[in-house]
Specification:
Blueprint lengths: L15 H8 L8 E5 L5 H10 L6 E5 L5 E2 L5 E2 L6 E8 L10 H17 L4 E4 L3 E4 L2 E11 L2 E9 L25 H21 L9 H8 L6 E5 L5 E9 L5 E5 L2 E5 L6 E4 L9
Parallel strand pairs: 1-2
Antiparallel strand pairs: 2-5, 3-4, 5-9, 6-7, 7-8, 8-9, 10-11, 10-14, 11-12, 12-13
Helix pairs in contact: 3-4, 3-5
């Protein structure tokens, strides 16, 4: 049965019932976890559910996503059950100016969970990628929906080199991670997200007071690096990423000037090409 959910024994399906038993309980952030075999986009589906009144803490997981989207409308696909593709609905009671931290919070929490459980050195690339070395492991996309925010992530778990969407990507399997079982990985990520989110909302979105900003800087693959930031209109800024401000914006110093860039301004951040040292 080639289309059976169990046709690839290396990629078993997730159990919706087991995930709900483990994560949904009185007082938990997570109010319900749905696992679907396939969908176009978990973000789009969950945004529609938010319009219909879905509560905060709703989680939608797709074993296969047919129209996954990244920032700027980029598309990507992966074999069924080769990764974790899911979206969550949050309704933070914090100032609107602080909500730019949500994507960064999600990245820090996921990186922390993966470092602990999968034993790989995952870093956050501003504003919405997770890296191992210079290769992309996961992407995050946050979108406003009604009074809340839907945050989706695609995390490469068991993809093989020939299955990678681009050469600059990687997976936990390729990196020989200690855990490739998607069930405990998803549980660990959601628990870490809940912990960070509770602390951040308790602090009314103050990323410094709750420790989120220092945690992000410690996990950053961008701050301290020489980067080229490509902006709309084919403009670009090349300089050194020096920090993250109180709103989650990237600070870049270039030729004596400081630029403060919001997620909406940046196409992507790359390590800039450096000239070879003398005598190399």
């Amino acid at each position: 049965m080639p289309d059976s959910r169990y046709s690839d024994l290396d990629r078993p399906p997730l159990s919706e019932a087991a995930l709900n038993r483990a994560l949904v309980r009185p007082g938990s952030l997570w109010t319900g976890i749905t696992v679907v075999e396939s969908t176009g986009s978990t973000n789009a589906d969950l945004a529609e559910a938010a319009h219909a009144g879905a509560p905060e803490g709703t989680v939608l997981v797709a074993e296969s996503q047919l129209a996954g989207r990244g920032r700027l409308g980029r598309t990507w696909t992966a074999p069924p059950r080769s990764g974790l593709t899911f979206s969550i609905l949050l309704k933070p009671d914090v100032p609107a100016t602080a909500q730019g931290w949500l994507t960064l919070l999600y990245g820090v929490a996921t990186a922390s969970a993966l470092r602990r459980l999968a034993e790989v050195d995952v870093r956050v690339k501003w504003p919405n990628d997770l890296l191992i070395g210079e290769r992309k492991l996961a992407g995050i996309l946050a979108e406003r929906a009604e009074s809340g925010v839907v945050i989706g992530m695609g995390l490469n778990v068991s993809l093989r080199p020939e299955e990678l969407p681009v050469e600059t990507a990687t997976s936990l399997g390729i990196e020989e991670a200690a855990c490739l079982d998607r069930d405990p990985l998803l549980r660990a990520v959601l628990r870490e997200v809940e912990s960070h989110y509770r602390e951040w909302t308790d602090a009314k979105g103050d990323a410094e007071a709750c420790g989120l900003r220092p945690a992000y800087l410690a996990a950053s693959a961008t701050v301290g690096r020489r980067v080229r930031v490509e902006l709309p209109g084919r403009q670009a800024v090349t300089g050194t990423a020096t920090g993250i401000d109180q709103f989650g914006h990237l600070q870049v110093e270039s030729e004596g000037e400081r630029y403060t860039l919001s997620a909406g301004d940046v196409v992507h951040v790359r390590p800039a090409d450096r000239p070879d040292p003398p005598g190399a």
